[in-house]
Amino acid sequence: MLFSVESELDEIQLEIKSLQGMVTLFENYRAEYQRYVSRGFLDQENRLSWVESLENTANDLGLNELRYHIEPQQQVLTLVGGVPAGINLAASKLSIESNLVHEGDLIMLLDGLTEVRSGLLVVDGCKIDRVVRNADLTIDANFKANCDTHWYTARYTSDMIFELDDEL
């Protein structure tokens, strides 16, 4: 009888340690998790907000030749360091082309996109070319910019959700 009580006590102490470990993990990573949630990384992408941001910023800057192309969302299967188990990572490519009055206009366009709560924005690359002017033509742009970006979003798989529920 004494042995079974000691055994149960040992099991309870192990479970308490495990719970304390989970609480510590939660406290350590909660703020970072909330940051990803607030950025829209753990949600559906919101393509309309990307378009609205680009068009509003272009209008504010007086850029009248904005063009963009959004490719269909693709699942990311390979990633440096690997995609964690239980996570579906997806990306959508957004290509942007615009005239610029000043090089800083490109920064403003991209900065407007970073304010959108629709995933994590990664700028893959941009190219800026100076517009060649003929003496008899008036052009309201000094530069032409092309950028390729990707928007990343993630979702837990149902297996991962069940595992988290079991641990909680």
Report on the structure:
The protein is of the alpha+beta class. The protein is built from four helices and five strands. Helices cover 43% and strands 27% of the residues. Helix 2 runs antiparallel to helix 3. The radius of gyration is 25 Å and the shape is elongated. The mean pLDDT is 85.
Topology of this structure?
Layout: H1 2-38, H2 47-61, E1 67-70, E2 74-75, E3 87-100, H3 104-114, E4 120-130, E5 143-156, H4 158-167
Helix pairs in contact: 2-3
Radius of gyration: 25 Å
Query: What is the CATH class designation of the largest domain?
Result: Alpha Beta
Major sheet details: 5 strands, antiparallel
The best one-word shape is: elongated
Structural class: alpha+beta
Short description:
With 168 residues, this protein is α+β, with helices and mostly antiparallel strands. The chain is 43% helix and 27% strand. The chain contains 4 helices and 5 strands; from the N terminus they run ααβββαββα.
Any descriptors?
168 residues, alpha+beta, Alpha-Beta Plaits, 2 domains, 5-stranded antiparallel beta sheet, 4 helices, 43% helix, elongated
